[in-house]
Amino acid sequence: MLLIFLNSVKLAADTYFLELPETDFIKVVIAKVDDCFNVFFTIECLLKCFGLGFCFDNGSYLRDDWNKLDFFIVLTSLTDMVMTKWIDADVFKILRLLRTLRPLRVISHNASMKMIVAALFESVGSIFNVMIVVVMVWLMFAILAINLLAGKSFYCSIDRYKLRSKYECNLAGGSWNRYDSNYDDVAQSMMTLFIVSTLEGWPDIMLQSIDAT
Length: 213
Description:
The chain is an all-alpha fold and about 210 residues long. Helices cover about 60% and strands about 5% of the residues.
């Protein structure tokens, strides 16, 4: 658990040195520390394989789903370490993204977290049914919004609060633009309602709807 925590801290610290060249002293030290973590996690994996058996017997290492996750993370980390050292190709640097999976190893070491994650996976079907109901409710309100506000989410590029029609806007030399959040079709209407439901940026959409002409 301590190694997983330290590795998570190291991954967070990496984000502050992304712009540094690979030959920089800090980047070299980070690479060495990462190699040490890879070695420690590989040793842990090998000890479990020797102690439990690899995959053929009941109760062996790869018979457990959480151990499969651990094995996958260790394998990708070793592949990343070997490929980036021996082959200088950008395509293998994509494997570094898989390092972000390492904090997930804490789940396999904590029984309570295992229970929570297992419960979440088992409830996916029920959550999907709830999502269908929510989407149907959104669809009804989206259709209502189309009937009330379709074609009305426009504004003039100049003096938008005085020029209230396309004719006046064009006469003044402006352009008649549509807001990004509008109710002109079902997809756009549902997206606008989704933005409002997240409470992110809803005052702007409210004012745009109030000013609709």
